Amino acid sequence: MSTPPTPPGGVPPLPASSAIAPSSSSEVPGPGEVLDGRYVLQDAIGEGGVGLIFRAVQFKVQRPVAVKFLQREVVGEHQLKPRFEREALALAALAHPNIVRLQDYGVARGHPFLVMEYVEGKTLRGVLNEAGGALPIARALELTRQLLYALAYAHERGIVHRDLKPANLIIQSLPHQPEHLKILDFGFAKFMPGSDLPLGAQLTRSGHTFGSPSYMSPEHATGGQVDGRADLYSVGILLFEMLTGTRPFEGDIQQLLRHHLITPPPSLAERRAELARHLELQTVLDRAWRRGAMSVTPTQRRS
Predict the structure, then answer these.
(1) Which distant-in-sequence residues (6+ apart) come within 8 Å of 20 by Cβ?
(2) Residue 172 in contact with residue 121, Cβ under 8 Å?
(3) What is the pLDDT of residues 274-284, one digit of tens each?
(4) What is the mean pLDDT of the chain?
(5) pLDDT at 124 over 90
(6) Domain range list for the chain
(7) Would you tell me which CATH number, out of the four given (3.40.47.40, 3.30.200.20, 3.30.565.10, 3.30.365.10), belongs to the domain 30-117?
(8) What are 183's strand-pairing partners?
């Protein structure tokens, strides 16, 4: 396998000896195992359709980290392995205070893994569950502001997240900031043309749509071409949920996809009467949900 180009940020390519080889075991490494002589796996802390995440310790410096593996079922699809490697190289170029930092990557017993910054905190889903409903307006807007800062940075570099949802946003408490938001899991990221990143590196199966139907843009839902506007659509749904305590649409997967395509979203006032006084918030949502809404990616802007 040829070495992919180095993305901006000076991330070195993997040595030839570390190239991803066919797995000799169907089992992903588990708790107690040591990766690359440096990382001791502890307990599993997250699982999705593609990735399995462990808490681990970089034992020489006793620093906690998070380690992400491809799911066992996905490892069998060998065309995804080089994409996982190229994803690691590209995402290592993202250095933003509101994006979880990728620190390392490697292979253990034929299973590729990413080593990420470990963030102690609650997901936005946990925050919403704890609140038992809507968040105060100022709190919802502050979290949305941080999310948009991170997306503007990623979109500037040609990376679209494509799977924004409460479970992929973690909120930590810092000495100078009670709620500091970070975006997790760029596993479904799309790399845009002109981004200087290796095209085709997104971790997806050809002909399939990945993501979370409740937060998915119409273009994404139909398997069409997406850009940064797809993320903004998802931000609109997240903001609506934070402000009202409900998602605009509910139902099974097919019903949700149909809603995103043809059903006008409810207004904020329909779900939370006091928001009728805040017309500017409805304007923001209308723009986020409008087809052809302006992307935060300068290269995608139209005059």
Answers:
(1) 1, 81, 82, 84, 85, 107, 110, 112
(2) yes
(3) 999 999 999 99
(4) 79
(5) yes
(6) 30-117, 122-300
(7) 3.30.200.20
(8) 99, 169
Q: Which two tokens stand for residue 160?
A: 């679209």
Residue 188, phi-psi category: left (phi > 0), alpha (psi -120 to 50), beta (remainder): alpha
- Is 196 known to be catalytic? no
Give CA–CA dist 61/25, Å, rounded.
30
Q: What's the CATH number of domain 122-300, 3.40.630.10, 1.10.3720.10, 1.10.510.10, 3.40.50.1820?
A: 1.10.510.10
Q: What is the pLDDT of residue 208?
A: 46
Quick: pLDDT tens for 176-212: 999 999 998 776 777 776 555 544 433 344 344 456 8
pTM, entire model: 0.79
Q: How many CB atoms lie within 10 A of CB 204?
A: 19
213-223 per-position pLDDT tens digit: 889 888 877 77
Closest CA to 114 of 131, 94, 96: 94
Between vectors from CA 291 to CA 276 and to CA 257, what angle results, nearest 5°? 90
Residue 130: how many other CB atoms lie within 10 Å = 8
Exactly one of 43, 163, 231, 252 is catalytic; name it.
163
